[in-house]
Amino acid sequence: MKPQNITNVKKGDRVRLIYMNDPYTNLDEGATGTVDCIDDIGTVHVLWDSGSHLGLIPGVDRWVMIDISTADEKQGERL
C-alpha cells in the first residue's frame, strides 16, 4: 500500500470513516469526527462524534475529508 498523503489534514478538520482495520472498534463505516492532532508517526487522531478517540493510520485505514464550508467530501485516503 502507498502511504497516505496527510499534508492537507489539520486539527479541526472533519472526517468520515470509510474503513478501519481494527477488529475491536465500535466505529462503523460512515462514522464522523473531528481531527484532534497528528502525531510524529503520522497517525491522525480523531475525536469521533460517538465519543471514541481512535486514530486513523495512513495507508491502512481509509477516510474522506468533509469540507464543512460546502458540505462536500474530498478523498482523504491513499493517493
Residue-averaged pLDDT: 83
Number of strands: 6
**Chain oligomer state:** single chain
Distance between the termini: 10 Å
Order of helices and strands: EEEEEE
Question: Could you name the ranges where pLDDT drops below 50 across 5 or more consecutive residues?
Answer: none
**How much β-strand is present in the residues?**
35-45%
Strand order in the sheet with the most strands? 4-3-2-1-5-6
What is the overall shape?
A: globular
Overall radius of gyration = 11 Å
How many helices does DSSP assign? 0
Helix content: under 10%
Structural class of the helices, strands and pairings? mainly beta
Commentary on this structure:
- This protein is mainly beta.
- It contains no helices and six strands.
- The protein has a six-stranded antiparallel sheet with strand order 4-3-2-1-5-6, with no helix packed on it.
- A hairpin with a 6-residue loop joins strand 3 and strand 4 (55-56).
- The N and C termini lie close together (10 Å).
Topology of this structure?
Blueprint: E1 14-19, E2 32-38, E3 44-48, E4 55-56, E5 62-67, E6 72-75
Antiparallel strand pairs: 1-2, 1-5, 2-3, 3-4, 5-6
Attribute tags:
38% strand; six-stranded antiparallel β-sheet; mainly beta
Short recap of the structure:
This protein has no helices and 6 strands.
